[in-house]
Amino acid sequence: MRELEFTATDGDRVLPGRKMASLDRVKVLVLGDSGVGKSSLVHLLCQNQVLGNPSWTVGCSVDVRVHDYKEGTPEEKTFYIELWDVGGSVGSASSVKSTRAVFYNSVNGIILVHDLTNKKSSQNLYRWSLEALNKDSSPTGVIVSNGDYDAEQFAENPVPLLLIGTKFDQIPENKRNDVLTRTAFLSEDFNAEEINLDCTNPRYLAAGTSNAVKLSRFFDKVIEKRYFTRDPSQMVGFTDRKRFNFKSLHYD
Ligand SMILES: Nc1nc2c(ncn2[C@@H]2O[C@H](COP(=O)(O)OP(=O)(O)OP(=O)(O)O)[C@@H](O)[C@H]2O)c(=O)[nH]1
Ligand SMILES: [Mg+2]
Question: What is the pTM assigned to this prediction?
Answer without folding.
Answer: 0.83
